[in-house]
Specification:
The structure is a homodimer of 349-residue chains.
Chain A lengths: L7 E8 L3 E8 L3 E9 L6 H19 L4 E9 L3 E2 L4 E2 L13 H8 L4 E5 H12 L1 H5 L4 E6 L3 E7 L2 E2 L30 H5 L1 H13 L4 H8 L6 H9 L3 H25 L3 E5 L6 H15 L1 H6 L15 E4 L6 H12 L13
Parallel strand pairs in A: 1-4, 4-7, 8-11, 11-12
Antiparallel strand pairs in A: 1-2, 2-3, 5-6, 8-9, 9-10
């Protein structure tokens, strides 16, 4: 007879530059409940951590009855030094340079806290609950094309952190050495060429040069252009919008070709809002993969060396979990990271 | 009382496009003896394998007395599919496409055979016997700048193979999307920008354009230029030669910046003949690292996040073992790869 154990509960926090979300999660039922709050950047990091921890405490109180807390998972904007849990000049959290996020949370909450970059949390979710699970792969690399380009790498079932926790920054691999300026200070990063921000900047440049009359008209109607507007225009035949998406796909393809040559993984997942325009992006992306990665051309599904690969060859696919990936990943972090003892907690006033 | 055991012996084979070397090795005494043979490409792969295996048998006979064979290690030009041990369009072994190198060797030799790409073998040697050992790191990435650009990646003490054995091809990461044509069919690969071949091609282009009178004079003396000539000219003040080395360092820096952002390893080793001109290469390389990798700028020795890193931060250094790395790596392969049973052998006529 095995001892009867209470079902597990985790708390997940998805900290973003404009809002933060907190959820209560169980492996059996998924997300039980979640709350969203604005990230009060103007009030400073301590106030934001206070908001986060209050929300965790409230939700935990509501759902802890009859459940054992496995831990609290946090997905944070990077760069995040690990295992210290300290931020270094995070572009989306101005004023947080050097902030010890993990230590400040541990002061306020009782119970094991697992912290990762938001991109790592999303990659973990896609690995454990999304495409990785569907294809039964042991490794994957995920790129999240949103405001920036996030990256999470899972090798042999474990998040790759690197020596100071700063691995998985493929968003800042140089694609065009003389390309557009990136927030990190470099020029031509993948983030400066294939994020939603990069798409909109490209549209603005084209409009200003007079080469995109259709997009200029859209903008004249008072609507501030979004990546979604641009996608719609492209699907309705706007050549400039189509060219912008093709360029984005090409940049993404150049970056991915490098990652495939370096890693030879069975799965590369493209997430974030821009990936919703897979139809517009992916033809140019696959062209670049065939041209620039002989590892891809030998291992794509059905090719010479794809036979022995899990998942059936090198697959490049749009993410499955959508906008929930980051929060879900934060929720399951405590279940996947090693050395997290099970313990009651969260209370600590 | 522990049972008395015989000292271990390994045989190493370094297969190259122009010559092949075979060595007998013991962990206590290193390389006991080695032989070099021409690689008879015109005679076809079976004849070359015959030559290799005969040399292994001969050397083994000479040194097997009182020693136990741990295995035979082979470093082969890539791309090499693993664990199959099959070659795919290897640019340096024309006519070997689809050749089952491992199976053909197993037919001819008795005893466990461990096969790796030559770049992986060199990285393993540098890890176990060179810089990796000196700095006590658990992971490294090595780039070998020779005729091509080889790459070997060791993560948490193990060679990274990827799903079909084709990981570690950072030599074919795109540096300049519109750059020079590479042997792999892509344009602007690291190999097309930072190999010895790329250096010489750059010199030829400058000479042809009339912009390198000093180098043109060197060539007029009937001496066919080598990377070494070019380095000497640069050290004697030739501006064109200096610019070529600076460009090479810049390309290398762009590629390395990407690898540092992706992996955040404690050690990156630059080997191969071109690395002998570290004084000419490295200033431009380090400039690019500071500019293009915020992971580097946060984790270089002495910086904010370098404290917890093994080896004292992100180190980029010239290789220690020189031209012997490939052969040494082949020799120690049988001692480092898992699942290699110890067994007598080699005989098989």
């Amino acid at each position: 007879m095995t001892p009867q154990t209470e079902p597990l509960l985790t708390m997940g926090v998805d900290l973003g530059g404009t809002s933060l979300r907190v959820a209560a999660y169980t492996p059996e039922d998924g997300i039980l409940d979640s709350v969203a709050l604005p990230t009060r950047l103007e009030a400073g990091p301590h106030a934001v951590v206070e908001d986060m921890c209050s929300a965790v405490r409230e939700l935990h109180e509501r759902y802890s009855d009859g459940r054992t807390l496995a831990g609290i998972g946090v997905g944070s904007p990077g760069p995040l030094e690990l295992p210290a849990g300290r931020l270094h000049h995070p572009p989306n959290l101005p004023g947080w340079d050097g902030f010890h996020l993990l230590a400040e949370m541990e002061k306020r909450l009782d119970g094991p806290i697992a912290i990762e970059s938001d991109a790592n949390a999303a990659a973990l979710a896609e690995f454990a609950l999304g495409l990785g699970r569907l294809l039964c792969v042991d490794s994957l690399c995920m790129l999240t094309l949103g405001t920036g380009v996030g990256n999470g790498i899972i090798l042999d079932g474990r998040l790759w952190h690197g020596a100071a926790g700063m691995g998985g920054e493929a968003g800042h691999v140089t694609i065009f050495p003389q390309g557009p300026l990136c927030g990190c200070g470099n020029t031509g990063c993948l983030e400066a060429c294939a994020s939603a921000t990069a798409l909109m900047n490209a549209a603005e440049r084209l409009i200003a040069s007079g080469k995109a009359p259709g997009l200029a008209a859209l903008k004249r109607d008072g609507v501030s252009l979004t990546a979604l507007d641009l996608a719609e225009a492209a699907r309705h035949g706007d050549k400039a919008a189509q060219a912008i998406y093709a360029d984005t796909g090409r940049s993404l393809g150049i970056g991915l070709a490098g990652l495939i040559n370096i890693f030879n993984l069975p799965l590369y997942v493209i997430g974030g809002g821009v990936a919703n325009s897979w139809d517009l992006l992916s033809p140019a992306m696959f062209e670049e993969l065939e041209r620039r990665s002989y590892v891809y051309s030998l291992t794509a599904p059905g090719r010479a060396a794809a036979g022995g690969m899990p998942g059936g060859g090198t697959r490049v696919m749009p993410a499955k979990l959508g906008a929930e990936a980051g929060l879900l990943g934060a929720c399951i972090l405590p279940l996947h990271l090693p050395n997290h003892k099970l313990a009651g907690g969260v209370a600590k006033a």
